[in-house]
Amino acid sequence: MSLKRIGELSRDLHFDLSTLYEIKNGTVKPSGYIYFNLLNFLRWHYALTRLQLSGRSGAPVRLARTRINPQLLGMLHSDGYIVSKNKTVLAGFSNKEKALISCFMKLVSETFVCRIHLKIDKRDGVLTAELPSLVARILYNKFGGKTTETVHAPRLRCAEIAPYLRGVFDGDGTIMVYDNKFFLPTVRFCTGSGVYAEELKNLLTRLDIFSRVRFCRNKRGHEWWIVEAKRQKDVLAFIETIGSVHPRKKRIMQHLAPELKRRLSARRPAA
Questions:
Q1: Does the N terminus or the C terminus of the chain have fewer Cβ atoms within 10 A?
Q2: Going by CATH, does the domain composed of 63-147 fall within 3.30.2350.10?
């Protein structure tokens, strides 16, 4: 290939000429950006699910499908993490409940065919499912990082709201039936970001579930926000629409739903 043709290719691919020379000479591997732009330039059709992705380290990753389940993202936004440190992106999910770890790994496998490293903290029994760096980088580039301060709800279609909130609730949510021995069913989310609390409230509103945001601060100055729904019809709607895969929370919902239906039907005037 002549210098002129390489220069033309560089302009067509919108990429640095010196890097193309290094790729041509075998000094460096072509990046994904170069690869996909070259396929488009040559008018070659390709299917993402037939590609095998590989990074500088770690086993290769294959896409089982191009869609990421919103519940997976919700779990990452609760007890999970997506962080970038020293040009390395890390992502994973931590919880003591084995059922949630299994659910997280299943949701990952729906999109990514990869190896997930599982470890346990012997001090408190917390399980952590760590994703390969390549998968973590895809999630980071698609949805951004996740820390207590930077988490934001993604743009979701109506059908995606319930599974996303289910993932968040399983990690950072609680459900209560009694308050000081009074029947006061409540579902709530807890977060360290006031902006994210408002975003969760707006998502619940789109599902016709009324909630409110409450600010809390303890004596040590630690601050957090609570998004809670207390009206019985809203709690019932939460159970029926969103639900939970957490064994204890799911069991509470299964026992609470019939009682809520009975009380709500008793309030309705006879026809």
A1: C
A2: no
